[in-house]
Model the fold of this input.
Amino acid sequence: MLEARAFEPEFLARLDRLALGIKRARTARVGQRTLGRVQGIGIELENFKNYSEGEDLRFLDWNAFARLDDLLLRTYRATRQVEVTLLIDASASMAVPRADDKLGFALLLGAALAYLGVNENDAVRMISFGIRRGKMRLDRSLVCSRREMYPQLKPFVNGIRPEGATRMTAMADELLAQRRSPGLIILISDFLVEPSDYENALSRISAARHEVKVLHVMGERESTGDFHDRMMRIRDIETGEIRELAPGDDAGERYRRRVEELAERLRDFCGRHAITYVRAFGAGNLDRIITGELPRLGLVV
Amino acid sequence: MGFLTPINLLWLGGSLALLVLIYLRARARMTVDVSSLMLFEEIGAPVVRRRMLHLDALFWLEAATLSALSLALAGLYLRVIEPITTHRTHALIFDLGAAMGAREGGGSRLDAARAQALAIVAHAAAGTRFSVTGYDLGTHGSHAASIDRRATRAAIEELVPAAVAPRAAALKAALIRAREAAQIDLFTDHAPPPALVADVIDPARLNLHLIGTPAENLAVVSLDPGTPGIRPGHCVIRSFAQHPMRSILTIESDRGERLNFPMIVEPESEVVAPFGPLTRGGLVHAHLATNGDALAADDDRWAYVAPGDAKSRALVLSPDPTVRDDLSRILLGINQNLTVEALAPAQYKKSNDQKSYELVVMHDAYVPGLNAPATLLIYPPPSGAGIVRVGRTLGAIELEDRRESDLADEALMLGRAREVLLPAGSEVIAHSAGSPAQHRIALVAIANDGEQHLGVIAFDVRHHLLMNPDDLEALLLTVQLVRRLTAPEHLRVVNTASYVTFQAPGGATVVEPDGIKRKLPADTSGQVGFMAMSAGRYRLSTPAGESSIYANYFDEDESDLTARPQAEAPALPATAIAHRSEPTAAGVMALGMWLTALAMLTLLAESILLSRDWWSRWTARHV
Done:
């Protein structure tokens, strides 16, 4: 099971020099991720600047005025903490092909990103979602905000079992019904649903002012396609629908083209809606994805 | 034939069954579980050639005839859903915040919302009553529930966005107002908090129309004109764009100075543009011209700085040297071009009686006959101060909790204060705490004494009251009053959402930035007032002359148009909304006539086929 690696010290040591890339939340905390200076109400005094008409008089430094005869405005660093939510698709489709251990791969990536978050003292939680007994169910982990709390995610990660169908719109509704403050949401899934479903879900989450990042996960065998039999019968693990298949000589090529087409459509949607899209195909590419793809696409810095 | 014994036959049958099972098992293809059939859509399926039914037209026609007649005799009917069209109310609620004025394509976001609302009105069932409500700082029930479609359309067309950030409380009030409606359509550019909606109405009755797509915007955040000839000014520009934007910042004063700053503003950044120092001062206007800027309301900002060519003088009189020191610092903080003389009242009488001052501040003292257009009386003496009569002295007084200030969660306890009797037509800026029915006294007020402006502060400012951070509200009131007294009477710079008052006993006419002219009646104290809801210049005409009010607008949340929801998110086509939301009742539509007609048609078709066969056989026999 790949997710077990997420708590190995050697693996975590390689993550220590990375940090989550956050844009829209515009945190102003000191650290690698400071992308823009935001003045806000906080505790930490940042600077002084000259007062100009129309600015908030609450921030005038009257002691400085008494000493220097100059109206100075105190500026503070906003101390808002970024909430990082890792949404893991735990539907039945994540369990096949069994040899790919797609769910384990998704959980490993999710846990790695959670580790990056708690390293920066952000409030991080993992949520697995899937249809259980006809209803969308979101299983939530503890909220971890310190590095020492990271091992407490282990029972949650090990306890996730793939089951049920994927309904991303229902997941978004359930999520937004309970969450309030905007933060960073990272959605990890194989996105094997109707495009309108994930488009609707991502639009709603973005509309709630969350910064959204998408990690598109597929297994090695699943993404390449390999057909030995001339005739075969396939069954959709989520819907139970059965289809007869007669792969021709170009079946592998057609399959890969279809996979590419679905991934391209998702990437295109994300590009148009300012959502970071990262393709993570095949657990064998884990090192390249974490140290190459994620920084290149801005998911980590 | 011992072989054909019953036992052997059973064994034979069992063996054959086993063979069949093995054969079927061998033929069966292995079923492979896959994550989704979507991945296999381009791979072909085996071609199956199998015909289950023979196509005989006469058989099927007769079967159809018999089936239709049987169903007609059985009384087949359809349950239909019919809309109820009587006494139905439909509430249309519009967000009128500044972001709804953002330009997109050929119109604003509010224009897009209008188009959707008009489509709903056009497709609604007859008898539907529509109400139209807008909200920004408060609610505007521009159109009560009515079946008059023309009035509804007119009310929708009349909506205009304000240059303010809409308040959640206003949205809540609008939803409460629409609570009785069967359907509520909310047109906004950002989704309201689900908890707010659920708190007021059943969320199932709310159709949310999210308007707008992410857009780019630059905003002028603040403008410090500096001090003419002494200190440079600066203008702060914030980018809410995802791309670098080229823009030109123009700083212009009404005394002929004009500076241009072409710049490229980086995405999501803040730029501080220094300029000057200006040589002459006056009304300073910063204008940001940018291609592709979606929101115009935050592209202009005005500030007033006292002209630097005439050095102004102010006189501070107080028996307490610490009060003189505090007041002098505050006056210099407001205007660095001011020359402040601070004296004890007794010293003044001896030497300085012939000078002219822009402002005279007198604390716990009154010296008559001073030559100044503005006078500020602080804690006036019990013997009276000109037109202000002074009553009893109170040991301690509590300042009211002022609505426009969110600084004080609790009322501020001040020290001593004196009850002042103000002349008619005075404007009271702050009272002591208590309800109007109780005995409240005026603590901060402004009055006109002929050509002279007179400000009054009734509480004592000894013991560094104005410099104590815990008593910040007292300092803010003092600064506000000094600015009112020293600013030109015909010119004011305010923020949008401010309530602006003027002394005009005969009423006034105001021309808003968009050119709309309104008459303002005077209240019982001879004042006129209006709320500045648009950014730009208001022109106020009174019998005494014309005044200009410049309203500045900036709000971080409203100006940030990059995170707005996409148009395709949950919005439905207007027709679909209209159909989906109609209340319905079940009805029954009998199908007997239709089935009988179908049977007759099939019989007719069968007759034609039979006739054609007969004719072909007959002709074949006779050729």
About this structure: Chain B touches chain A through 61 residues (CB under 8 Å). Chain B is about 25% helix and 35% strand. Residues 88-212+564-584 of chain B form a domain with the Rossmann fold fold (CATH 3.40.50.410). The first helix of chain B runs from residue 6 to 27.
